[in-house]
Fold this protein.
Amino acid sequence: MKAVVIKKEDLRYNIEKIKEYANTNLLDDNENKVKIIAVVKSNGYGLGIVEYTKFLIDSGIDFFAVSTVEEAIKIRNAGIKEKLLMLSSTSVEEDVKTLVENNVILTIGSKEALDVANKIGQELDKKVKVHIKIDTGFGRYGFVYNNSEEILQILKLAKNIKIEGTFTHFSNAYYDDKYTKLQFDRFMECIETLKRNNVDTGMLHVCNTSAFIKFPDMHLNAVRIGSAFTGRISFKNSMGLRKIGYLKANVAEIRELPKGFNVGYSNTYTTKKETKVAIIPCGYIDGVNIQTGRDMFRPIDKIRYIVRELKDLLKKQQLFVSINEQKCPILGRIGTYHVTVDVTGKDVKINDEVIFNTSIKHVDSSIRREWK
């Protein structure tokens, strides 16, 4: 039976490390502590959005963020009433109304989004809670940072809006420190202009996981933490965070293949000798070897990635699984639902547990999550 296994002890450890690091710059205990906004998008980074959110609440986290209306409603339908921020700006009236009715804080990143939110607020006779998004160089959602006068004029027209926060999103905090600092400066300049014009910008937050770790001086009033909780981050893990979650399955078949026998699609692997193999009913549909997009990498990293793939192809053995604490190489290409593993000379039997160290964010949500 396939399942994603999550060890509670390791997750608690990461949560406490993150809480501690969030406030490393406080001069004394009387200062306002940095708020942690837990991003639980992508099915809670693969941990299961409802179970994961409840676990975080039990661990002292009380502010959450999602990327879609469906994620927000799933959380509310589970009876979770804590603060919830929709990170994406939308001008779709039906979606805005659904979010407001479910007490979800909106992100406003355009005049159109503000107009719709203001209209819904008027219809429901309530102040709509929002965070203002400033685009400092990502090109997705948000008011462009150097259009402060336009932002001011737009905000003055909104009578049914309550600004509770203002934020931006870094495009490459993983690697590009210079550009990240430029984005930060652009954001702070915009904030100063708004404040000079008597706009209450509310809670300020700019840091995603990578910026949170690399730039503690940018923590401001709050930080948005996603992948850090899982310990699966896209750069050097300097905080000692533990990797959370792994995919497990069981050996379905064991076979003996003759020398010179092709394995898998496209005949990319041929046995060099008589080989004992185990067939595991897990494939890329389950997230095996699916990786976060390469769009986050610098050109040099993309070149290194291609070179590594070429080397792996020449070796014909890219990935390994663990069976009874034995490292076993996957042979050939990964199939949709199956992989073939070399278990020659190893103590492996039918139904033995197989562990895949894969990115759980990409494991289908239909697969059971097992909390230990």
